[in-house]
Amino acid sequence: MGTTHKKTAEKQTSATYLTTEADMTELQIQAVSEILNQTLATVTALFIKTKNYHWHLSGPHFYEYHLLFDSQAEELYATIDILAERVRRIGGKTIRSVGHISQLQRIEDDNEDGVDALDMILRLLLDTKILAQLLREAHTISSECHDIATTSVLENLLDQTEKRRWFLAELSR
Asked: Could you read off the pLDDT of 25-51 as tens digits, one per residue?
């Protein structure tokens, strides 16, 4: 029996191997997966940038900002899995590599040395605004495709994103 299962698995192509049943058309799956993957890439890039700032922070507000950046990074990290699993549940395929992320992300990477704390906050604020816009765009597309579950997930993620944006905006004053 193990040999039969192995032979059957070997015969499966990549197109059928990851196929998931969904109540959406191929075009709907493609549209929602595409925008969710852009969102996933952007969230992943923002997670990395937030952790970068968390690790390279210094100055008089080190303790508070260090904790804030870590908290925001944890939320972003949780969001990565939520988005990726949502793509798979509707029958789509997720991002596969750092290169793929860099192609799809809508925010800029930050490799600069010596970024001061206020600039970190301002950059994260801008990126968080971009993410909020992207989540709204994804919400519109998933709603138009009648993907109620994805629409609901995106509403929750947008609420979390707006809270992070609020905290950053207040610190930037």
From this structure: 999 999 999 999 999 999 999 999 999
Return d(Cα 34, Cα 57) in angstroms, integer. Answer: 34
10 pLDDT more than 80 = no
Kindly state whether residue 8 falls inside one of the protein's structural domains.
no
pLDDT at 23: 82
- Output the pTM of the full model: 0.88
Q: What DSSP line would sit under 7-19, residue for residue?
A: HHHHH--HHHHT-
The domain total for the chain is: 1
15 lies in a domain?
A: no
Long-range contacts, 92-98 (Cβ 8 Å, 24+): 92/29, 92/30, 92/32, 92/33, 92/36, 92/37, 93/18, 93/33, 94/37, 94/40, 95/37, 95/40, 95/41, 95/44
Range of the domain at 31: 22-171
